[in-house]
Design a protein that fits this description.
The protein has a single domain (1-334), classed as Rossmann fold (3-Layer(aba) Sandwich), CATH 3.40.50.1820. Helix content is 37%, strand content 14%. The chain has helices spanning 22-28, 104-117, 130-141, 160-176, 179-188, 191-196, 200-214, 234-238, 240-251, 279-288, 304-307, 309-320, and strands spanning 32-36, 42-48, 54-58, 81-85, 123-128, 146-152, 267-272, 292-297. Helix 2 (104-117) packs across helix 3.
């Protein structure tokens, strides 16, 4: 059984160089609101914290909402402003059923709209899971707008690694679950099942624990998970699988490796050794960017912010302050 492309959590962080100081801006901006993109789509944002730095956290999926990660990323808001936003077609942002408006190009344009709305000169980006791929797509399109980036448990830089990930998910689910549970999982992962469901949130809450469990180091749900992958409202949840499918379809047989050299900003690639995403995928990211380091977390899988917070957050803080954390290593092309 294969659970395709369910990368549940993602984040983005932006470093502000605005015409007014970030602290002044944080004091005057509302806690939440909407941004109107160039193609007239309403994007919901939420601001947490204040400080001289600005951090924009973008969730994963594709298909989830910012509430899937915001509670677990609370430490990032200490002494800085953190801006989260729901990606188009998801959460409290405008819901979209037209697949032509859900491609990766629109997601990149939306991130640029976030930058412009908050009058940020350059951005320091942190992307978790699908978010790592999204901020990388942004960086190759706008390399002059990137201050620094953290790729945390990032989706792969090329299509081929996704097959390896799916194989690992299949191996783990077959080991953990009974045939009956696997059969049920096959039924509820079908997008049509979600579209026709009387209660899509209930389906989501049945499905995601099966996925999250195999994404962890212990392959249990013993961690203190606070994020809600099924937040955003019933109709947003109903559209999760369809939205996800449109994004992946738009990428085709993608390969970002040849374009990464244009991004000169420092990049920290964080990878939990027990992630379902192959470690080689993160090694490719770290080798492709000219100024990148790979930081491995031994006792973590895909959700290191919950599984190993005492390692995860200090490493990010060190990097955002201007240096790579101890243990981060350069990687030659695998």
């Amino acid at each position: 059984m294969k659970f395709k492309h369910y990368l549940p959590v993602v984040a983005i962080v932006l470093f502000s160089l605005a015409t007014t100081t970030a602290a002044q801006t944080a004091a005057t901006e509302s806690a939440e609101g909407y941004i109107l993109t160039p193609d007239k789509v309403r994007i919901f944002y939420k601001i947490v914290g204040q400080g001289s730095e600005t951090l924009v956290v973008v969730h994963g999926g594709p298909g989830n909402s910012l509430e899937s990660i915001r509670p677990d990323f609370e430490p990032l808001a200490k002494n800085r402003r953190v801006i989260y936003y729901d990606q188009r077609g998801q959460g409290r942002s405008e819901l979209i059923t037209d697949g032509k408006k859900l491609g990766y190009e629109q997601h990149v344009a939306d991130l640029e709209a976030v930058r412009q709305h908050f009058k940020l000169d350059k951005m320091s980006l942190l992307g978790n899971s699908w978010g790592g791929l999204l901020i990388s797509l942004y960086a190759v399109a706008h390399p002059d707008r990137v201050e620094r980036m953290v790729l945390d448990s990032s989706a792969s830089p090329m299509r081929g690694f996704l097959d390896d990930m799916e194989d690992e998910i299949s191996r783990r689910t077959a080991k953990i679950y009974t045939p009956e549970k696997l059969a049920r999982g096959k039924v509820i992962r079908n997008p049509e099942f979600w579209l026709k469901a009387k209660d899509p949130v209930a389906i989501c809450r049945e499905f995601y624990p099966m996925i999250l469990r195999v994404y962890t180091y212990t392959q249990t749900l013993e961690g203190n998970f606070k994020g809600d992958v099924c937040a955003g409202g019933p109709e947003s949840v109903r559209l999760q699988p369809v939205t996800r499918a449109h994004v992946w379809k738009s990428l085709g047989d993608y390969n970002l490796m040849p374009q990464l050299g244009a991004v000169k900003a420092p990049v920290l690639v964080i990878h939990g050794v027990a992630d379902v995403i192959p470690q080689k995928s993160s090694e490719f990211w770290a080798s492709g960017y000219p100024n990148a380091r790979l930081f491995l977390i031994e006792k973590a899988g895909h959700i290191a912010q919950v599984e190993a917070p005492d390692i995860f957050f200090p490493a990010i803080e060190t990097f955002l302050k201007g240096t790579f954390p101890v243990g981060a290593k350069e990687v030659g092309r695998p």
